[in-house]
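Rotation project, supervised by the postdoc (A.L.). Task for the rotation student: set up a whole-complex structure prediction and record inputs and outputs verbatim in this book. Inputs entered:
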Amino acid sequence: MRLSKAWIIAARDFKIFRRVKNVWYSIIIFPVVVSVLFPAILEYLTIRGNHGLAAPSVLPNLLTSFSFFLVIGAAYVPLGIASYSIVGEKVEKSLEPLLATPLTDGEILLGKAISAVIPTLVAMYTAAVVFMVGIDAATFNTLGYYYFPNWNIATLLLVLMPVAIVMSVLFSVIVSSRVNDVRSANSFGIFILFPLLGIYLLSETSIITLDVNTLLIISGILLAIDVVLFFVSTKTFRREEILTKWK
Amino acid sequence: MDLTKKFGTLTAVDNLTLHVNDGEIFGLLGPNGAGKTTTVRMLCCLISKTSGSGKIGNYDIGNKEDSLKIRKIIGLVSDNVGLSENLTAYDNLDFFAKIYDCPQTQRKQNIQRFLEMLGLWEKRNVLAGTFSKGMKQKLAIARALIHEPQVIFMDEPTANLDPEASKTVRDFILQLKKEKKTIFLNTHNLDEAQRICDKVAIMNTRLRAIGTPQELERSVSGRKTVIGLEQEANDVVLRALNKLALKNLVSEGNTITFDVEDPDKENSPVVEAIVQAGGHVRSINVVGSTLEDTYLKLVRK
Ligand SMILES: Nc1ncnc2c1ncn2[C@@H]1O[C@H](COP(=O)(O)OP(=O)(O)OP(=O)(O)O)[C@@H](O)[C@H]1O
Ligand SMILES: [Mg+2]
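Outputs recorded:
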């Protein structure tokens, strides 16, 4: 497997994405919403002096739950990118000529994965910075200290987020092989968000606390899912399968 | 050799044995569903074979390591153009050239050379998605050639093209032959095969015939003599002709046709017989059977 070859594919995909509005939307919308909306809500609550929700005692818990939305975003963004890049090739039937080149199946799959992962990382890390700054600005007066950065968010961004992105990309690959248009690829892809939304609800209702240990455990579980999805997707993404079974 | 492909219980290609020489234009003919695309895909190592063997140059199509080497020396124009519609013509080619590790200067030269040859250089910065079918097809051909492969597979390269565009593509294929490339062409177009192929094979799951277009034309039935008369042949004329024991004699309207092996010798007694029986000969022609005759006969078997 040659990374340089995968990179050629990813670089071409970036060129294509620049011209596709839907890819832009999926890269931009969710990160903007998370990074702007949540700080704005808190700002609003503090201005209103609503100390029920934004009281110093409950605030840290709330903020951790909010920050989990960055993970959900990280899983959401690649769905739009990967399903476009794979279903799009399917519609254009441009995979067959690509498969006739001396690339291995793994290199093509890796190229597709990179082209979904990199824009997601850029978008989500940017969103994370904006989010942290916004939250700090909105809560400093209430808390008396800057809540971010902390170990919690570091674990979330550097450990959990990458495994969540990989999970979502691989899931998109599998879904994309079975559907014929980008929209249904997206709607099936959304299923991968449900477990994450579940975790968010559990934390919001204080059934679990998203401390560093819990985040690591969640990361471990997602990593296990990644491994399973990896095997399924490499099985799906084989020349012969693509040409004869993909519909 | 004995190449076979089964999809579940359906046998798409059955014990196919072909040999294509270096520098030849080889035409694979067959009706829809005959297994032409499947054959090409097996030869390009895109799908596995069920049994049998095959070689491109010295490389084995069943061998995993060889298959990468094979893909390096071949170019495929697949039955769908499969262009990236959101990339320009130039970027489509540049992408493929990069995959084959062409150095940058050579990449530029080749892209320019092929786009100019196919009349697309002016359109190099236009998105491929906005091209007409013919332009897309040409671009797909340029893409298959960008790494200067020794062997080129083309799956129906002129399907969907207007006569003029088809001619450009055919001329281009002949040009490639001059550059000593080996070309494996799938087509339904018998006329095209006849005009440009050195060798053709007719298949319908199994191989039905293989040879030069001329050999195949002759293989079905020899030539025919067509005699045009002033009026429909009357009984006297027909009786006279029957005495000559001609093969496949048919009298239809004002014409009489029969099989002929050596027209120079066989035709004059026939004309004499007609004249003696009181008929008036207006014209006499010898027609060969066409590749189409052979094709139809073999495919229907
Ligand atoms: N992925 C597949 N799964 C099952 N059957 C297939 C598959 N691909 C091809 N076939 C079958 O194999 C046979 C040969 O198909 P193939 O595409 O090779 O024909 P072809 O000669 O290229 O036809 P055409 O002239 O229409 O392009 C057909 O009966 C087809 O239905
Ligand atoms: Mg075909």
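Student's summary: Residues 173 and 248 of chain B are 40 Å apart (CA to CA).
Supervisor addendum: The radius of gyration of chain B is 25 Å.
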